Amino acid sequence: MTRDPVAVDGNDPDLRSTSEGTGDTVPEAGALGRGIEWIGYVFAAAIVASAAALLFEIFMRYVLDSPTNWVHETSIFLCAIAFIYGGLFCAARDSHIRVVLIYDALGPRVRAVLDVIIYVISAISAAFFAWASWLMVETSFWNPSGAFHMEGTGSAWNPPTPALLKGFLLIVMIVLAIQFIVLAVNHARQRGSRQDA
User: What CA–CA distances, in Å, run from 93 to 24, 48, 97, 182, 184?
Assistant: First the structure.
């Protein structure tokens, strides 16, 4: 009885042609994708820092009876930037959630064409979201008179985290659009090189 090579070493050479993904940055993501994955560790640490801040708040509130006024908003901000970055991280790994009922039933050639089309459409969508983000940044970084003033939370502490989140979203959407273009170009090149061979 022969054993399935996937079960033995965990590597499936055709795994990337399905919806499963590999769990690593795909080669087609290029240097940008590798950079996105490396920076992702910073945002993973933000989740840990958020949990540590919440534990600190529990200690301050229930042990020392001296609650803070900054932990709640800080933990929300740290989790929010991690979630925003998560979309970019998943794009670099080609591991985003998708409905693949039809896609997985198609042959490799059709999938290769669809990959390029999907990445181009995704790049256009990300560019539109970047434009929408810029509209939010305009109103959150400048007041109606045109003076620079970052939008705050309105709490007693009033940090400028809403403005920072909107600015971060704009940057991520721009990079996401570029990442999708890189993926589209590299998938198209691969398809071309396979046809030439």
Answer: 5, 22, 11, 13, 14
* Range in 31-45, 51-65, 86-100, 143-157 the model is least confident about: 86-100
Q: Is residue 2 assigned to a domain?
A: no
Question: Which pLDDT score is estimated for 100?
Answer: 82
Tell me the percentage of the chain whose pLDDT exceeds 70.
Answer: 85
Mean pLDDT, range 9-16, rounded to an integer: 50
DSSP code string of 26-83? -GGGHHHHHHHHHHHHHHHHHHHHHHHHHHHHHIIIIISS---SSHHHHHHHHHHHHH
Domain count across the chain? 1
Q: Let me know if residue 12 belongs to a domain.
A: no
Domain-located, residue 18 = no
Contact present, 54 and 106 (Cβ < 8 Å) = no
Residue 179 lies in a domain: yes
Yes or no: say if 129 and 137 are a contact pair by the CB < 8 Å rule.
no
Measured CA to CA, the distance from residue 152 to residue 143 in angstroms comes to 12
Confidence category of residue 99, pLDDT binned at 50, 70, 90 = confident
Reported as a pLDDT band with limits 50, 70 and 90, residue 2 is very low
Cα 24 to Cα 123: distance, rounded to the nearest angstrom: 21
Pairwise CA distance, residues 6 & 20, whole Å:
14
Structural domain boundaries enclosing 116: 23-196
